[in-house]
Amino acid sequence: MSASSATPYDRSTLLTGLTIGVLLTLSASKLLRLLNFQPSENTGIESHGKIAPEKDIRVGVEGLIGNTPLVKIKSLSEATGCEILAKAEFLNPGNSPKDRVALSMILEAEKNGLLRPSHSLHHRPTDNTDDHNAVSSHLRADNDSLEHTTSGKVEDPDTIYEGTVGSTGISLAILARARGYRAHICMPDDQSPEKSNLLRALGAHVEQVRPASIVDKSQFVNRANSRAEEHSADQGRDSRGFFADQFENEANWRAHYDTTGPEVFSQSGGIVDAFVAGAGTGGTLSGCVKYLKPLLPDMKVFLADPPGSGLFNKVNYGVMFDEKEREGRRRRHQVDTVVEGIGINRITNNFRRGEEYVDKAIRVTDKEAVAMSRYLVEHDGLFLGSSSAVNCVAAVRAARELGEGSGKVVVTILCDPGNRHLGKFWSDEYLKDYGIDMDDLDWSDLRFLDQK
């Protein structure tokens, strides 16, 4: 039979055969690309195929907070045979998980009438001929003057007071600017200079005090509280002072219960064998584990603790310190470490909320933290701060305890970038003066964790 005399049925059969033949010549990957399918695992390579538009616009700096990625740290995962995942909280706009806490505390205060937003607190450049000076002028707050509104009336905005080693203050300063408040930050004078400089650039008034015990009225947290009380009691001011009180404020752990914990659960696919975090206020640890533990009852919780902190003894032995060393008996700063942001010698309300879920505390030395920070730069390109390094050391130890090569999933927190620690934790000269000689450390592999 000739092609010209083929029946419709024969032509249909021919077309079907040709179609099948073409499809069989296509590789699976090409077919997937034609159909615009995406791989289930994010490899970091963006697809340039057609994407249906979906409006996704964040509102203000507040809209940038949270939903940080959960990243697999490749070198640590390969070295332990476990999947070590880290919540990249340093990617928040204020570069720490404290952004969540600051926003939560401010919203709660506004809800309860303790803060009244003002949107007239804007500083304008005074010299437009120099762009650099104009930007600096815009960022720099004049804490000795009051801003005039467009109507000419002097407005005295409410002020947020907080005692912090830096990160919470930075988060509060950012949000204070966005929501029309002033920020007054009290902090120990032995913290890295990058933090205080950044706070001033963000328009905060920075009051630095000598490190002291919590029973001392001049201790940085107590000083912030007294400043807020003085502000509110001043009859000559048409504004109030709000003491954020991050160590005891319930809005702290609730921020992580409402956001960080659910994000970890979702991003990990609901598989977390161990959760590892340090504690300063204790809010991150408590909020996350209070959310995760009921959903994952077999999950182990490890506290990462630096030298000088009493939480290691409290968790593992039930006694925080000898009575003669109880905070208040000694008049010096107790947490003696190059690590900033975690470690404390008292039980805060926020730590108490999740204390029952902590299975074990892991002590991390300063040398281990320093070596880990350099190891992560060399092997993963991750430039992290001291608290993050402590968490990663503890995450490796937790993975080893669960079983090397077991494939268990360990989640920790990357809570600070290295650029906030250039003057101390990332300064070889400072570390040498402190007693850590970088020439004595080897971070080519993880053997530094096996040294005594």
Give me a quick take on this structure.
With 452 residues, the chain is α/β, with parallel strands linked by helices. It has helices spanning 8-25, 28-34, 74-80, 98-111, 131-139, 167-179, 193-201, 220-233, 250-267, 283-295, 311-317, 349-354, 366-380, 386-403, 428-434, and strands spanning 70-72, 83-88, 147-148, 154-155, 159-163, 182-188, 205-209, 241-243, 274-278, 300-305, 360-363, 409-414.
How would you describe the overall organization of this protein?
The structure is a single chain. By secondary structure, the chain is α/β, with parallel strands linked by helices. The chain is 39% helix and 12% strand. It has 15 helices and 12 strands. Strands 1-2-12-9-10-11 form a 6-stranded mixed sheet, sandwiched between helices. Helix 13 packs across helix 14 (386-403). The longest helix has 18 residues, at 8-25. The radius of gyration is 27 Å and the shape is globular. Residues 1-6, 22-40, 120-154 and 328-334 have low confidence and may be disordered.
How many helix segments? 15
Unreliable parts: 1-6, 22-40, 120-154, 328-334
Strand order of the largest sheet: 1-2-12-9-10-11
Give the strand content.
5-15%
Output the radius of gyration: 27 Å
Beta strand count = 12
Distance between the termini: 89 Å
Quick check: average pLDDT?
A: 84
Q: Describe the biggest sheet?
A: 6 strands, mixed
Helix content: 25-40%
Shape, per Cα inertia axes: globular
Structural class: alpha/beta
Element-by-element helix/strand order? HHEHEHHEEEHEHEHEHEHEHHEHHEH
Secondary structure elements and their pairing?
Layout: H1 8-25, H2 28-34, E1 70-72, H3 74-80, E2 83-88, H4 98-111, H5 131-139, E3 147-148, E4 154-155, E5 159-163, H6 167-179, E6 182-188, H7 193-201, E7 205-209, H8 220-233, E8 241-243, H9 250-267, E9 274-278, H10 283-295, E10 300-305, H11 311-317, H12 349-354, E11 360-363, H13 366-380, H14 386-403, E12 409-414, H15 428-434
Parallel strand pairs: 2-12, 5-6, 5-8, 6-7, 9-10, 9-12, 10-11
Antiparallel strand pairs: 1-2, 3-4
